[in-house]
Amino acid sequence: MSARSCWIVSFAVVACLELPGCRPESFPVPGSFRRVPATHRPGVVPDLPAPRRPSAPPLQIPRTTLNPWKPKVPERDWKYIVIHHTGTSQGSVAGIDAVHRKRKDKRGHHWLGIGYDFVIGNGRGMGDGEIEATFRWRKQIQGAHAGVRKYNEYGIGIALVGNFDKTRPTAAQLRAVKRLVGTLKAAYGIGSDHVLGHSDVRATDCPGRNFPLADVSSSRRLPAFVDRRPVPQPVRFVGLRGRFQR
Ligand SMILES: [Zn+2]
What we know:
By secondary structure, the protein is of the alpha/beta class. It is 27% helix and 11% strand. It contains eight helices and seven strands, in the order ααβαββααβαβααββ. A five-stranded mixed sheet has the order 3-2-4-1-5. A hairpin with a 4-residue loop joins strand 6 and strand 7 (243-245). Residues 84, 198, 204, 206 line the site of zinc ion (ZN).
């Protein structure tokens, strides 16, 4: 570039800077060489960031709400749920207990009592859909229902009163067994594939050809009542101004 051309270009640049409206928004302010954000210029109200709100405290759900059948003693390492029917048209925990006490194990010892952990009534002998836990569940001792040691020791035995080769469980029984199975699965981390019919572990007709095992084994815990009131947070001192904050 010749000296004359250089002078012409320099003059054009200076003239452009002095003309109003020619300076681009992002051009440095002469003297400061610092870009001024649009929101910091006079007459421009900046957008203030939204005040930060403390996140909601975690909900505290009592375990008893999630598992109303939680025993008061340390629990066994449950891995299975085994479903039975009583094979009778009526029955109760007391009646089954009396029958099972007469049975003997392989060593000739009488059973301690009813072999199941839970019984669900059908309205004849117990309430329709009534769930009753037995002494085995309350004391968390091994069951006597599966006929296979592994499933007696690690399987929760649930019996529904009825003969489901001939009839079907009542609607109340089905609701009850789904609620119980869903709760126990969640409480002890038992998968649907470990919810078994008695005939899955031993050659037997129990719990009957009309029992909807697939439907029951996929049960999930029903939504429990949850106390949504905020949990009180400890008061803590912030700063020297004497302000207290929750
Ligand atoms: Zn059975």
